[in-house]
Amino acid sequence: MRVRLISFALIIVTLAAPLAAAQKVEVTVDASKAGAKIDRNIFGQFAEHLGHGVYEGIWVGPRSPIPNTRGIRNDVVAALKALKVPNVRWPGGCFADEYHWRKGIGPERPETLNPNWGGVIEPNTFGTHEFLDFIEQIGAEAYLSVNVGSGTPQEAAEWLEYLTTAQPTALAKERAANGHPAPYRIAFLGIGNESWDCGGNMTVDYYLSQLKIYSRFVRNFNPAQQDKQQMLKIAVGPGGGEPRFNEWAEAVMKAWQHRQWSLDFNGLSLHSYTVVNWDKKFASTGFGEAEYSQFLKATLEMEGLVSKYSDMMDKYDPQKKVALVVDEWGAWYAPLPGSNPGFLVQQNSLRDAILTALNLNIFAHHADRVRMANIAQMINVLQAMILTDKEKMVLTPTYYVYKMYVPFQDATFVPVTFNAGAYTHGDITLPRVDAIAAKDKAGKLWLEITNVDPNQAVEIEVSLSGITAKSATGETLTAPKIDSVNSFDAPNTVAPKPISAKAQGGKLVLKLEPKSVTVISIEQ
Ligand code: AHR
Q1: Which of 25, 59, 310, 496 could make an S-S bridge to 126, C-beta 3.0–4.6 Å?
Q2: Residue 488: left if φ>0, alpha if ψ -120 to 50, beta else—which one?
Q3: How would you classify the pairing of strands 422-425 and 386-389?
Q4: How far, in Å, is the centroid of ligand 1 from the Cα of 348?
Q5: Contact at 8 Å (CB) between 76 and 135?
Q6: Can you give the pLDDT at residue 7?
Q7: 443-501 per-position pLDDT tens digit
Q8: Rounded distance, CA 256 to CA 131, Å?
Q9: Considering 194, 303, 448, 513, which one is annotated as catalytic?
Q10: Nearest protein Cα to ligand 1, atom 2
Q11: Is the pLDDT of residue 84 over 70?
């Protein structure tokens, strides 16, 4: 990362250089060097009971005319399978701290309320078994968030026993009667959500006493998850960079450092949305270059946050046993006009594609500490992968970035150096390009390059050491305008196109379109 920042500083000093010279960016990839593994779990998703995220987005019910498997939409499942979604966080968010799992199992499902999100009726027709069926259909792992705010340790402990025990207990028999005799596999457990705010407005001392109780008694009994593949527990961490969050995060990590055998957790969560102004949120479409550049500047604050909390965690956990889990992140805009403001409905434009690549690259640069992340949220809510309207479905620009990044899942980070250059609009200056490289398990080298500049193409000259490149092929994502979107009427305005390059004098030369995200694999 340091290399990137230094390069950026250098180019600011040389901004007076002729424009044509600044349009060429030399990228050097040393394929003989290896960094940390880019954990596939940083490509995780988040599905809260919020608006049409679950109901309509995933669940239409078995009697729906929309093609479905046991009530879960087939089109959505097929689209998500292509992303190789590693994990899905559920049922919230703020919703999780008011969720009582027993209302979502068995034949009788009482209607309850969803006070956080529009005060609407929660039908509970999508509950534990339906979520785990969905997870299985898309091939992901379950990340359950248990109710610490208004639930009890006993309620959470019984949920986990119901889900995971192989012994013939009353709860296991109830699970079998509800259609699943075998224990479920639960890979991740979140102990509370934003407990400093919507999760109960707790002090850190109060939260720590809860964390100790929940982490001791909420056990996973699945025999297949005892020695290997143990369930990882994630504690509530900071929600930004303010002093109160520093204090919170330090206190939680201090408790981990001084833990006894009865306390353990494996992740500290970080929530950070790109917003600019919470009271006057930006629109998700119909914006100009001023808002484009301002929003991307704000999203790059993720780098500072991740660095800061990684450094802090190094003090208490130099061996990096505890992961920084960015389990809520993404663009948060004003609700679309005419939508229920409690449903957090927004469009998804090319700007969001660029924003996604910039954040995924930040996580990849910190892959030694950031081993999990969950974009908010998967369908129809905030920065979604997918939008649905009754039987219609559309894939967003963000979806396509996730698809293009699939080769980076569990790949090994490879250092890249480049002069980022500068893109300036008004008083905002951003690095013009960003890039990461990684080697997949088969040894193939992948390179991602983002051209943030909405006006100028960039000629990229890639020098590779450690391998002899012959050519490169891949995909590039751009669109006519920074706020181009995919709509139900025009679903392919922002869609990846093939791109390729041949080696010239041992170097690969690629021309990247303005405002584009490009992923290529290098052929040797
Ligand atoms: O993602 C929407 C909400 O944002 C979540 O429920 C909450 O955890 C966060 O404040």
Answers
A1: 59
A2: alpha
A3: unpaired
A4: 18
A5: no
A6: 36
A7: 999 999 999 999 999 999 999 988 888 899 999 999 999 999 999 999 999 999 999 99
A8: 31
A9: 194
A10: 93
A11: yes
Classify the phi-psi angles of 89: left when phi > 0, otherwise alpha if psi is within -120 to 50, otherwise beta: beta
Identity of residue 99: Y
As a whole number of angstroms, the distance between CA 469 and CA 504 comes to 10
Long-range CB pairs of 251-257 (<8 Å, 24+ gap) are 251/204, 251/205, 251/208, 252/204, 252/207, 252/208, 252/211, 253/312, 253/313, 253/315, 253/316, 253/317, 253/322, 254/316, 255/208, 255/211, 255/212, 256/316, 256/317, 256/322, 257/316, 257/317
Amino acid symbol at 265: F
Closest residue to atom 4 of ligand 1, CA basis: 93
Grouping H, G, I as helix, E, B as strand and the rest as coil, residue 305 is: helix
Exposed, middle or buried by CB within 10 Å (0-12, 13-18, 19+), for 276?
A: middle
Q: Which residues line ligand 1 (CB under 6 A)?
A: 48, 92-94, 193-194, 198, 328, 376-377, 382
Parallel/antiparallel/unpaired status of strands 458-465 and 507-512: antiparallel
Token duo for residue 123: 């039908």
Of the candidates 310, 295, 437, 433, the residue with the CA atom closest to the CA atom of residue 364: 437
Integer CA distances (angstroms), 209 to 10, 148, 201, 206, 452, in order = 49, 11, 14, 5, 45
User: Residue 419: how many CA atoms within 13 Å on its side-chain side?
Assistant: 18
| DSSP structure class, residue 417 | E
Q: Which of 95, 195, 271, 374 to mutate to test the pocket of ligand 1 (most atoms within 8 A of CB)?
A: 271
Name the residue at shortest CA distance from atom 5 of ligand 1.
93
Tokens representing residue 422 in the block: 């500068």
* Selection from 406, 416, 407, 464 nearest residue 439 by Cα: 407
Please say if 289 is a catalytic residue: no
Reading the block at residue 174, the tokens are 């109830």
**Which tokens hold the place of 185?**
């596999």
Q: Does 242 qualify as catalytic in the annotation?
A: no
Is a pLDDT exceeding 50 seen at residue 145? yes
